[in-house]
Design goal:
Blueprint: E1 2-4, E2 7-9, H1 18-37, E3 43-48, E4 56-61, E5 68-77, E6 85-90, E7 94-97, E8 104-112, E9 124-126
Parallel strand pairs: 3-9
Antiparallel strand pairs: 1-2, 3-4, 4-7, 5-6, 5-8
């Protein structure tokens, strides 16, 4: 903190909006609680690369949580910053998508009975 040319630089408690800071902390806590209630990312997600076709086969291992209701395959264009498409695939550990593995990014995530979605697992190549 310093004063230069009569102007104060730096953060001082009298300039903080503690009500706003408390609201941000509550939103962050709610987001963390929701993430903690969601299922874990699927383990050992793989994209099968041995067959050179225009479809993509994905596999993964079922999570240990007892309330996992199913899984979703997500995908996006290679230039997209967020997942743009979701395919609910049910309570299974593999799914074939009619899209080329060369043109998009794929992921797999678990969904629990409450509808909470876990983090996405990026599949690694498996020959």
């Amino acid at each position: 903190m310093r004063v230069e040319g009569g102007k104060q630089y730096g953060d001082l408690p009298e300039f903080c909006d503690f009500g706003f800071t408390a609201r941000v902390a509550r939103v962050n806590a709610a987001a963390l609680w929701t993430l903690a209630q969601a299922p874990a990312a699927p383990r050992d997600a793989r994209i099968l690369t041995a067959a050179l076709t225009n479809s993509t086969e994905l596999t993964w291992k079922r999570g240990a949580e007892p309330d996992v209701a199913g899984y979703e395959v997500v995908w996006r264009e290679t230039t997209a910053p967020e997942w743009t498409h979701v395919i609910p695939v049910g309570d299974t550990t593999s799914h074939e998508v009619d899209l080329s593995k060369d043109n998009v990014f794929f992921g797999v995530r678990a969904v629990n009975r409450a509808g909470l979605r876990g983090p996405v697992s990026f599949p690694l190549p498996q020959v």
